[in-house]
Design a protein that fits this description.
Strand order of the largest sheet: 1-2-3-5-4
Order of helices and strands: EEEEE
CATH class: Mainly Beta
Shape: globular
Radius of gyration: 11 Å
Number of helices: 0
Mean pLDDT: 95
Largest sheet: 5 strands, mixed, barrel
Distance between the termini: 26 Å
Strand content: over 45%
CATH topology: OB fold (Dihydrolipoamide Acetyltransferase, E2P)
Number of strands: 5
CATH architecture: Beta Barrel
Number of domains: 1
CATH superfamily: Nucleic acid-binding proteins
Structural class: mainly beta
Length: 69
């Protein structure tokens, strides 16, 4: 899961358990999500990167930053 890119479907932020859709095993699955930085907030539609995973369905995310060319 770590290193996967996903899309926020339920707001993630301080004191909130958000939701992220991730591509897993050829399909899309929903995971509970928390911000890696406890002060950050991500709204629905934000692309995020999974930086930590706690089985079975919890991920910690940060904002996706595409590499510059």
């Amino acid at each position: 899961m770590i290193g996967s890119r996903g899309r926020v479907t339920g707001t993630i932020g301080p004191g909130l358990v958000g939701e992220v859709l991730l591509n897993v095993r050829g399909g899309t699955e929903a995971f509970y999500a928390y911000p890696a930085d406890p002060d950050e907030t991500f709204g629905s539609g934000t692309q995020v990167l999974v930086v930590d995973f706690e089985p079975p369905r919890t991920v910690y995310v940060e904002r996706w930053q595409p590499l510059s060319r």
